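Archive record
______________

***
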Amino acid sequence: MRQLNHLAVLVTFFTCLSSINSLMFFLPSNLKKCLKEEIHKNVLVKGEYELTEIPGHETKMEVLDSKNHILYNKDNAVKGKFAFTTDEYDVFQICFETRIVSQVRSPTGLAKEVRLNMKYGTEAKDYENLAKAEKLKPLEIELRRLEDLSQDIVNDFTYMKDREQEMRDTNESTNSKVLYFSIFSMCCLLGLAIWQVLYLRRYFKSKKLIE
């Protein structure tokens, strides 16, 4: 019993560290809003959205990557779901654009209420269907969830370590370039000073000011 309690505490702790984004905002007419998110490689992303309906207003919804590849799009979006798996680390954006249909008259100044719920990684997986497919017990499902959450955290630490190493390499490369440039500048200044001394010595000799 104590082990089950410890397992429940661990699952709750790791779940708090998982990636779940839920937000609500208002989208005025004839305006486009985009939400950007950096997501790692090979991460399952699921989203669910819902918009209030206003007569004479249509909303287009798109999910794009940094290369403007469309991963999901919906004209006259009201309510729906989308899902995709990232092929590489990238910045993804979810855009909502509302426009007024010219044939329909409607009051101006209205704004749609947009609700968006995003899940990444482990939280996006459907463990209920997994349990049915593999005939797993509740404890086994919790262990599987804990294992996946632990793997996500390990991947995050690995990514941060790689970024730290990349930044360190960049700093060292920059410092080396600055050092070489400083040495080159000093050599140029030293050469210029020697040339000035020789030139002035030759000039003064030609004027017979010095021997």
